[in-house]
Amino acid sequence: MKRALITGITGQDSAYLAKSLLEKGYKVFGAHRKTSNPNFWKLHHLNVYDKIDFVSFDLLDSKSISEMLDRTNPDVVYNNAAQSFVASSFDQPLYTSDVTGSGVIRMLEGIKKFNDKIKFFQAASSEMYGLEKSIIKNENTSFHPISPYAIAKVHAYWITRMYREAYGMFAVNGILFNHESPIRGIEFVTRKISNGVAKISLGLEKNLKLGNLSAQRDWGYAPEYMEGIISMMAQKKSDDYILATNETHSIQEFVDEACIVANISNSKIESSKKNFRLHDVQKTKGSYKKAKRELGWSPKTKFKKIVKIMVESDISRWEKFLKKEAQPWDLGT
After folding, report:
1. Is 187 noted as a catalytic residue in this protein?
2. Of 16, 129, 149, 225, which one is the catalytic site residue?
3. What would the pLDDT profile of 48-92 be if each residue is shown by its tens digit?
4. Is 127 a catalytic residue?
5. Nearest to residue 9, comparing CAs of 35, 39, 45, 50?
6. Is 132 a catalytic residue?
7. 333 in a structural domain
8. CA distance 188 to 269
9. Does residue 89 share a domain with residue 15?
10. Residue 169 to residue 175: CA distance in whole angstroms
């Protein structure tokens, strides 16, 4: 039985990834921070919590990483662990750099010493492109990061490539453009919207305040992206791939579509300057041509369908909440 280790197991991506790997017959280990009080609601939501072996570790501690590898002895490592919030990275730039950037060096160095045949996946980000001016980004597009988070991700990207090229390790960068689902964290704008309009539709709130509504993103469906990264790791040679939809929609479009699904007026959604990011990427758009050509991967779920899935899910959660029905959930607070 193949053994997969997923770091950052409490996140959206890791939950869907764990579910897919379990269905494919893998033994799955889920790693979470030693110092955190982990919230496993996403794993409970997908009914996979009881099927995962958990291990704690610390990306800031090389010894902790070595102990984790020794305990799990994986065939493949999916590194989803990071300080993953762009806005928070401005408040915690050094911590973000050390965890999201240098933490990947510790991971790769630990793998090289323990067993350099272990396959390694690094969750890269479309934020790395930042202010780069190309309309559509591909695997050869230059990076121009504009946040501590994006800079740390660029650091991790090049370290991953270096270990592949210098040591011959199987190391992949998956450059994932925005990807959403009903288990997206409530701190992300898409869930803020789906959760907010759900509460308004049920009379639990009167309005919702957001930030920059004109920002545009390339939004895909998270479960499909996890299938894409599994395909990356099944290749004979490791390489870097973009997963995206080649479509761009504004946050205002997301709001408008969410309001249609929830049957409320979009006048209840407001933009507030205090919610703007300090330094924001205005538009992202990625090409998945390489992934389609080499992995046979392409996005299936369209933008409007993603919005519908998320809004209907949050409405259902709040209806259950009002009925006092138990459910795994972040409670939308």
Report:
1. no
2. 149
3. 999 999 999 999 999 999 999 999 999 999 999 988 777 788 888
4. yes
5. 39
6. no
7. no
8. 16
9. yes
10. 19
Q: Does the model's pTM come out above 0.90? A: yes
Domain count, the chain: 2
CA 235/CA 170 separation, integer angstroms:
10
Q: Among residues 113, 117, 101, 241, which one has the least CA distance to residue 168?
A: 117
Q: Of 248, 250, 249, 258, whose CA–CA distance to 208 is shortest?
A: 258
Which of these is catalytic: 14, 64, 97, 125? 125
Name the H helices within the chain: 12-23, 41-45, 62-72, 86-91, 93-96, 103-115, 148-167, 189-201, 222-233, 251-262, 289-295, 303-322
Residues 236-245: tens digit of each pLDDT: 999 999 999 9
Q: Which two tokens stand for residue 14?
A: 């890791």
Q: Of the residues 84, 127, 129, 313, which is catalytic? A: 127
Q: Identify whether 328 is part of a domain.
A: no
Token couple for 229: 């990264």
Single-letter amino acid, residue 240: D
Flag whether 64 is in a domain. yes
Positive or negative, the CA dihedral 116, 9, 194, 46 is: positive
